[in-house]
Design a protein that fits this description.
The chain is an all-alpha fold and about 200 residues long. The chain is built from 10 helices and no strands.
Length: about 200
């Protein structure tokens, strides 16, 4: 049901997620129009790395084919854990990421549903990564080092990586409480905003 609530709930989930990201960025002083614009351009550049239709089926672009600044920032973002795939970052558990994003050929709902999941997953990844990249750029523009900027991203838009939680949280609690990682991060953040 979680896939239905997120990946295939187009565009409602993506719009809510984008608005939430912008609100969180604003509350931490990381909503910067220049960084927002640059992040959209970078998303367009980065998308080319994964889109086989750009050059032909099975052929991917290399970082060397991106503008030099984009390639450098891509390495910095990935190297510091700022961007990753949607399935890796969020609470989609119990299946491997390929199944979550619609690559499962045994999907009983058919190929149309798989294509919808692929599209929804790509949209989710784009929205999440755009906010994370913009926050990173804004922090770097304020003089933060790459490591500190990555930390600012995780404090602002939350760290959903499995390494950010205990084994019990990953293996038990996440399976019982829907969207646990978001709740775990958002609750203390909202409490801090209310009481400080």
């Amino acid at each position: 049901w979680k896939t239905m609530a997120t990946v295939t709930n187009i565009p409602r989930f993506q719009v809510r997620n984008m608005i939430s990201n912008k609100f969180l960025q604003w509350t931490k002083g990381m909503l910067n129009p220049e960084a927002e614009g640059k992040s959209v351009q970078l998303i367009n550049d980065f998308r080319k790395l994964k889109d086989p239709l750009i050059k032909g089926v099975g052929e991917k672009l290399s970082l060397n084919e991106l503008p030099e600044e984009s390639a450098k920032l891509y390495r910095e973002l990935v190297g510091n854990g700022v961007i990753t795939s949607f399935a890796d970052r969020f609470d989609l558990v119990g299946k491997d990421a390929a199944t979550i994003v619609g690559k499962d050929s045994k999907n009983i709902l058919g190929k149309g549903y798989s294509k919808l999941k692929d599209f929804g997953s790509s949209m989710n990844e784009m929205v999440e990564n755009q906010g994370r990249i913009a926050t990173y750029i804004a922090a770097r523009q304020k003089g933060a080092s790459p490591k500190v900027a990555a930390s600012v991203v995780n404090k602002t838009l939350y760290d959903y990586a499995p390494e950010a939680r205990t084994a019990i949280e990953n293996n038990v609690i996440k399976r019982v409480i829907p969207f646990y990682s978001w709740i775990r991060n958002n609750t203390p953040n909202m409490a801090e905003m209310l009481f400080t």
